[in-house]
Design goal:
Blueprint (H helix, E strand, L loop, with lengths): L1 E6 L7 H11 L3 E5 L10 H6 L2 E6 L7 E6 L3 E5 L13 E6 L2 E7 L9 H22 L4 E6 L23 H12 L3 E2 H5 L8 E2 L5 H4 L2 E2 L2 E5 L7 E6 L15 E5 L3
Parallel strand pairs: 1-2, 7-8
Antiparallel strand pairs: 1-14, 2-4, 3-4, 5-6, 6-7, 8-12, 9-12, 10-11, 13-14
Helix pairs in contact: 3-4
């Protein structure tokens, strides 16, 4: 089974890119972030033609998350991250897929930092850690995938010194991510490629993609009940080079059958 995460950066504007990638790679499960579309504008019909079921939670102009499954039944569990009833950002959705719990998240960027947006990011991370700990306590197969907007280590950024003043790389954010993984999660890509520079994001400015000046922001974390099934992982880097592409590329894992 192939499970992918992809910050699409506007699902309707980049629908041709998404459809082309789905047709080319045929992932079984896809977590999408940054739909930038209200719930009623999600392109369900177009995706259904490709054989994909979906659950989603949109938001006008910003945020938005979805989970797609290719010919697999999907059952939504929740469409918000617990812990703050006043938080109306569409950044989290969770569903049961093939006896697994698939969690799709779009963590706040946090810039400009320091400031209220960074405070919101840290608060969101705190809520995520609490919910992730609860999920681990359930002792079920869980995949926690999405755009974390965190650069975990120096190996995950082309020039660390250029990002020291950015919320993606602030010590508090990296510490929170490390604490999250330390609960017992497996960072799938880093687990399989411990010494390799792998990026999932390239800015639109300064020919970042052409220079491979990238960042690793998109992560797939696996609970202990599913981590032993991990047999492959990677990034469909070439998708970033397509016309009207997102600034992210799809990241994916391969799992053996149960």
């Amino acid at each position: 089974m192939r499970i992918a995460t992809f910050n699409i950066n506007g699902i309707n504007g980049r629908l041709p890119v998404l459809v082309r990638w789905l047709d080319e790679q045929q992932p079984d499960v896809v977590c999408l972030q940054e739909l930038k579309a209200p719930t009623d504008k999600f392109p369900q019909r177009e995706l259904s033609k490709l054989g994909y079921n979906a659950v989603w939670h949109g938001q006008k102009m910003w945020n938005g998350v979805a989970i797609l499954t290719r010919g697999i039944e999907i059952q939504e569990v929740r469409n918000s991250l617990p812990g703050d009833l006043a938080d109306d950002h569409s950044r989290y959705i969770e569903a049961i897929v093939d006896r697994m719990l698939i969690c799709c998240l779009y963590l706040p960027n946090g810039n400009p930092a320091p400031g209220p947006k960074f405070d919101y990011k840290l608060a969101w991370l705190k809520r995520l850690k609490k919910h992730a700990k609860y999920l681990l306590s359930e002792q079920v197969p869980v995949v926690l995938a999405g755009d974390y907007n965190v650069i975990p280590t120096d190996m995950d950024v082309y020039k660390p010194e250029r990002w020291e003043d950015n919320a993606l790389y602030f010590p508090q954010a990296r510490k929170a991510y490390k604490e999250l993984v330390g609960q017992g999660w497996t960072d799938a890509i880093r687990h399989l490629f411990p010494d390799e520079r792998i990026y999932t994001f390239w800015d639109y400015l300064r020919n970042a993609y052409g220079r491979d000046a990238g960042l690793r922001l998109d992560h797939l974390l696996l609970s202990p009940q599913i981590a032993p099934r991990l047999v492959g992982a990677g990034v469909d880097r070439h998708v970033r080079g397509w016309e009207r592409a997102s600034d992210h590329a799809p990241a994916w894992i391969e799992l053996t059958d149960q």
